[in-house]
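Students often ask why we bother predicting the structure of a whole assembly rather than each chain alone. The short answer is interfaces. A chain on its own may look different once its partners are present, and contacts between molecules only exist in the joint model. In this exercise we take two input lines together and write out one structure for the complete complex. Read the inputs first and try to guess which parts will touch.
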Amino acid sequence: METESIATKKSLFRSDAMQRLMAFAALIVLFVLFSIASPNFFKFDNIVGILLATAVNGVLALGVTFVIITSGIDLSVGTVMTFSAVMTGKFITDWGLPIPVGIVGGILAGGLCGLISGTFIARMKIPPFIATLGMLYVSKGLSLVISQLMPIYFNDTPIFRQLAMGSILGAIIPGLEIPNAVLVLFAAAIIANLILTKTVLGRYTFAIGSNEEATRLSGVNVAAWKMAIYALCGLFSGLGGVLMAARLNSAQPALGSGYELDAIAAVVIGGTSLSGGEGTILGTIIGAFIMSVLVNGLRILSVPQEWQIVVTGGIVILAVYTDILRRQK
Amino acid sequence: MGDVIVQMTGIEKTFPGVHALAQCQFELRAGEVHALVGENGAGKSTLMKVLAGVYKKDAGDILYKGASVDIPNPRAAQQLGISIIHQELNLMPHLTVAQNIFIGREPRQKVRFMLDEKEINARTEQLLSMLHLNLDPRTKVAELTVAKQQMVEIAKALSFNAEVLIMDEPTASLTEAEIGELFRIIAHLRDQGVGIVYITHRLEELPRIADRVTVMRDGRYVNTSPITEVTRDQIISMMVGRTIYEAAPEVPENPSQDVMMEAKNLRRGNVLKDVSFVLKKGEILGFAGLMGAGRTDVARAIFGADSLDSGEIYVKGKLAHIKSPRDAVAHSIAYLSEDRKRYGLALGMDVEANIVLASFQKFLAWLGWVDATRTRDRAKVMVDMLAIKTPSLQQKVKFLSGGNQQKVIVGKWLTADTDILIFDEPTRGIDVGAKSEIYKLLNELVQQGKSVIMISSELPEILRMSHRIVVMCEGRITGELTNAEATPEAIMKLATQRGEIVQMETDSTKGDA
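Now the answer. The structure tokens for the assembled complex follow.
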């Protein structure tokens, strides 16, 4: 009996590594399958398209990874992203602030939303689902109020668009025109990985998700760290908002709903456990790529968009189910 | 024994509706193991949580090394050198041994935000070797046995340079060998001058480990005395406030020879090896053995919770195909897990709902509507019959004591009208007074013609209650004793009959645990 329970636990802990491996294998399989199915899939332009399509969702998912590892949830990342985009537009176009100031301001606006959610969750003990659901509506409404329901364009500052669509890499290595948005995603992922694995914040993220009460009793100021974690998630949403605005050359106040679910799906496919305590940044990035490869590949195979959504849902269920199966062994 | 290190006087603590501590006092010297005993709810844990900064006291004084101190939170206690190991292990299973030990005060790198993982592991290694613990700092805690996890807790507590170490029921889930290891470490710490508070239910441990014992009752201090100057019976009578005799009442004769259930050649992997036994009508059949002997596995197999490789179960003479707990219930078998809160009760629901939980179909009225009048009547009958102490039928069961929770579970299965009840450690975590009520209840059940299988690790309990005793060791039944034949020595001999079996077996099964 005892030996058995130890064995189960062992496999449980191998499972996040396994899940990542599985997810990576799934990504490769998808690549190979689509490449065989269509000659148009494995082409430079198309791969760049996939990378670009992953950028925003990937950045949002990075933040959500932290929150989910604490066994929390953030439903507001999509609309906070929009809020940040609108604020960036407000700063740069309407107020004429310098572009870097506008960018930092947009990111901080997202961080502030996260901090507020985190305060409700950590100090007022409102369940994360509810607190961030509230933040979803609040940020969505504020985006509409501040923009007065109109998109804000960045036509006076053409350089802003280069943040996402230009290619520093292409300028250095001709022919490798990978948009900056992709570089931003990878840079953000590296930073997120550093925070998660090497810093105190990362350690407490896992500790809170693994056993919050024990963490508290160990003298860790759990409430403060939780607020920091939601604020960090908000900062990533803010970065996602800036990227989105740059990519579209405009802040679209009506956009954003549904992005939170894509981000959560990417995290889950990447092997992060909704019950907390385990998860990786690499997994999340792979999860985000699986989703965009799938959508892209199906589109190339002329599968209607509505069916792409259905398939994505199936993949999420499948990813979690394989994880559960492995745990039961 | 050294100087007085902790002196608590006049401690008061009130929770909503409960006066948990009233004028409590406690004294701890450096270099002593001071046992703290009392029934569940006596306030032992609460008092120690006040000392450890988990709870804030409402009134009273704490002198630490002669100076009055205020301990507002766990961190303040740690800084004073007071560490507590809680009853429920407080570890982060997903983190490593080293990460757990240094949680909240990780060594940092020059950039203050970055962890110094090397340093964390190195310091842990030092700490573990000081305690002579053979553990890898990089192992995830979830991969360790409960006993090893406990050692991690101790290492963690000591890493604060603790001068006071509070241990709340540390042996509750340890095997005999692991308890020996724990006691070795406790003795080692005592010799180094650490003051140790040892909260326990297992009075038989006291002479082995404790120097002094303090008894608490109903949130009040009763008595403190050196362990050599009190007998176990005196401690018990102080705990319950009256003299009760632990001596066994006569086990009523079981006249029936009718077979209620028979298990034939149950096998499951290495866990169950050819287990066969007979359960008679109106009988309490005790299952004795050491931890990991496979007793719970027998119960789970009969109940359909684990699938068997082979073997047959007959209920009332008929072959029963039990593939799931649902089948078992249909064959009138109930399993009352030792982990009542997890497997036995819907904690957030009230007494009435729990009692009718396993037999809703009996209370259905038109269109599947639950007949609330009948469920209430039925619950009322059970509460009266089993003497469940609850303010009302609408009380949520999580607010009941362990003994009353156990009774609610019994009520649930009686309502479902089961004939075979398998009790797994029926009195674990239940205080002395409530224990005898559970025993009375078991006797009543078998007198009504029901059959009981009682798995218990407490020999006195097995000896006192069982008509017959089956002893297991490493997945086998190594013997069967009648109540008349059974002595603690006879049972322990069978429970440890490992060597002989291994000799009889071929080499292939050696080392199976």
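Check your guess against this: Residues 243-247, 499-513 of chain B have pLDDT under 50 and may be disordered.
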